[in-house]
Write a structure and sequence with these properties.
InterPro entries: SAM-dependent_MTases_sf (IPR029063). The protein has one domain (about 5-85): Rossmann fold, CATH 3.40.50.150. It has three helices and five strands. It has helices spanning about 15-20, 35-40, 95; strands at about 5, 25-30, 50, 65-70, 80. A five-stranded mixed β-sheet has the order 3-2-1-4-5, covered by helices on one side.
Length: about 110
């Protein structure tokens, strides 16, 4: 069974999408007390932590096969970690995937 963890969980819309796709939720976190209460109401029994993401020791989070960290609708994702099929992994080097900014050179 696939499991999911959600940083910036909000009212659990993102988590609901994962649940609809067959993932079992393991964890949620948000700094907003109203968002935490909404997530808890939407998924009874879910472990939701009220905390700023900078204060969470990531080593203490439960294991999940997929993690979502979207700030809110309309904003770019900070991180979205989901399992990728081995055949879809890029053979490009990190340097090729992440070109330097403004034409400058990258250290290294």
């Amino acid at each position: 069974m696939y499991t999911s963890g959600h940083l910036f969980s909000g009212g659990w819309g993102d988590g609901r999408g994962f649940m609809n796709a067959g993932y079992a939720p393991r964890f949620g976190a948000n700094h907003n007390p109203a968002a935490v209460a909404t997530a808890r109401a939407n998924v009874p029994g879910l472990y939701v932590r009220e905390a700023a993401i900078q204060t969470i020791d990531m080593r203490t989070l439960p294991y999940a096969t997929a993690w979502s960290a979207r700030r809110s609708a309309g904003k770019p994702p900070l991180q979205a970690a989901t399992p990728r099929p081995a055949s879809r992994k890029s053979s490009m080097s990190a340097r090729a995937r992440w070109p330097s900014r403004a034409g400058g050179s990258r250290p290294g």
